[in-house]
Amino acid sequence: MKNFVISCLLLLTSTAVLAETKSWGSLSSVQQEALAPLAQEWSKLPASDQQQLLNTAKGYARLDSEEKARFHTSLPAWVKLTPEQREAARDKYKAFQKVPSEQQEEVRQRSK
């Protein structure tokens, strides 16, 4: 579950999704809670980004409070990345997943 937040953000893709934009008010209360950091800019996001964020928000309820806070902190920065930057972040994440878990934990501890 610790990697869930990172996984969610990195799995957002720049692949076009056929969808119409949704108003903030049409989102469920759980979706609004998960995506709260984006409330002000929600209507400006492309429909494909909105759909990808809604897909990512599906796992939000399962996060503990620390993971939710990390998710909220990371979300605005992720949305501002260019497609190229997102792809680079995904590649970095995939490479990190190949590192033994003990070394991953060491890196996480140094990052705090």
Characteristics of this structure?
112 residues; mainly alpha
Q: Write down the secondary-structure element order.
A: HHHHHH
Main sheet?
none
Alpha-carbon distance between the two ends: 18 Å
Structural class: mainly alpha
**Number of helical segments?**
6
Report the uncertain regions: 13-17
Percent helix, as a range, is: 55-70%
Overall mean pLDDT: 84
Shape descriptor = globular
Describe this structure as you would to a colleague.
It contains six helices and no strands. The chain has 112 residues and is mostly helical. α1 packs parallel to α4 (65-80).
Short description:
With 112 residues, the protein is mainly α.
Ordered list of secondary-structure elements with their pairings:
Blueprint: H1 4-11, H2 29-34, H3 47-57, H4 65-80, H5 83-97, H6 101-111
